[in-house]
Amino acid sequence: MFADFLKNLVAPEPEPLNDSDARLALSALLVRLARTDGEYSVSEAARIESIISARYGLSTTDARSLRGEAETLESEAPDTVRFTRAIKDAVAYEDRIGVIEALWKVALADGARDAEEDALIRLAASLLGVNDVDSAKARQRVANAG
């Protein structure tokens, strides 16, 4: 189902993602983060749906469907580097900061910080080209909104 999408991600010079594929890549990155600690909770899945619904103006049904596609893609996809590279190429810097905020929302959805999730967010921020200061501010905004 995702063969062409994955083929593009692993290409030496991938084509920029269209809006639909960028949504899918971001959603799959959120799923990857949620699964990082070995527990993909109902609250994390609900938080992912909430994030993608708000970010893309999707109905609850459409957000749930996109999350389901993202779960499948995440399980078939090779690595986090290619997800983030695809997102970086498709998304403006300010919006990439929003991606970091979305990752923190998922990481904190279960009420606990996990070292593996923290490490994945640090990696994603670096690969997205989001500097440490903006990444820290994104985490603080999410934690304070809480």
Properties at a glance:
146 residues; mainly alpha; TerB family tellurite resistance protein; TerB-like; DjlA_N
Kindly describe this structure:
The protein is an all-alpha fold. The protein is built from eight helices and no strands. It has helices at 3-10, 19-35, 42-56, 60-76, 80-90, 93-107, 115-128, 132-145. α2 (19-35) runs parallel beside α6 (93-107), α3 (42-56) crosses α4 and α6 packs across α8. It is globular, with a radius of gyration of 14 Å. It starts with a helix and ends with a helix.
Radius of gyration: 14 Å
Number of structural units classed as domains:
1
CATH class: Mainly Alpha
CATH architecture: Orthogonal Bundle
Strand content: under 5%
**Gross morphology:** globular
Query: What class, by secondary structure content?
Result: mainly alpha
Instruction: Give the % helix.
Output: over 70%
Helix count from the secondary structure assignment: 8
CATH superfamily: TerB-like
Note the run of SSEs as H and E. HHHHHHHH
Largest sheet: none
Question: What's the mean pLDDT score?
Answer: 86
According to CATH, the fold-level topology is: TerB-like
* Spatial separation of the terminal alpha carbons: 37 Å
**DSSP strand tally:** 0
Residue windows where pLDDT falls under 50 for at least 5 positions:
none
Oligomeric state of the chains present here: single chain
What's a quick, concise take on this entry?
Residues 23-140 form the Co-chaperone DjlA N-terminal domain. The chain has 146 residues and is mostly helical. The chain has 8 helices and no strands.
